[in-house]
Amino acid sequence: MSRRRGGLMSDRLKYELAEELGVAGTVRTEGWGGVSSRNCGNLVRLAIERAERAMM
């Protein structure tokens, strides 16, 4: 199975969402692998909410 190159969310948006959730420090020190799966799910939820608001 091939891996996707690039993502749907820009790095800027990911860091903005991480700041909003309070996990940006973890991302800076440990990388995205240091963020819990629960918080990753919360990042996705926030991104979906923003996308839905933008579509309205």
UniProtKB/TrEMBL annotation:
It comes from the Bacteria. GO terms for molecular function: double-stranded DNA binding. Keywords: DNA-binding. The keyword Isomerase does not apply. It holds the Pfam family SASP. The keyword DNA-binding applies. Belongs to the alpha/beta-type SASP family. This is Small, acid-soluble spore protein, alpha/beta type.
